Please model this.
Amino acid sequence: MTAVVERTDFNKKIRKEFDRIQKSNKEFKRAGKKQKRVLAAKDAIRWTNLGLLNPSSGSYLVIGAVLCIDRPPEWWDAQDQGEIQLHEQILERVEEPADCTVCGVGGLLVAKCMRFDKYAVSYQFDRDMALETCEAGDGLADLFSNAQLALIECAFEQWTTANSEFGYISEEAQFKASEFGFKYNDAKERFIAIMRNIVKNEGTFKP
Model:
């Protein structure tokens, strides 16, 4: 018999917001890419203000330890085979604020998957999980180009010389992106500013 998990108040709040999004999601199922990018950016801002997303340089997405390790074997088998959606991983693992650390790209991935999740991840351990560049890029490839992800990454990480792992962008583009990022010393403020820019420009980041 599986143990009953006593959810924290924070986890309940996150689940309540997730349920609200799902109930309001039907009208957006056929939305175009631009509208979905805007929705993802708006959701990213809301998730940040609710405390789910903890913007921080250096990691695409790091999620805390799983809430309930007393899962039946078939649940862990499904996870190991990549059959557990990313939003399910997050809802199970995030227990307190700052349990979900993201960069600019990682925060968009979380927001997108909490609304339009079609992205399964596979992990064979019950401690912290983290995504690499290719995994984050794959999860957003249906909405954002590599050039856009590179601009977002350079702006959030405040890179002036290093090229993004998502692909080459011109020195001029990188300079504009990093200059945008340098306007905001605080990572949370910088992340929200990037998301607001995407909303303002109808789904495109234009530093």
About this structure: The longest helix spans residues 33-50.
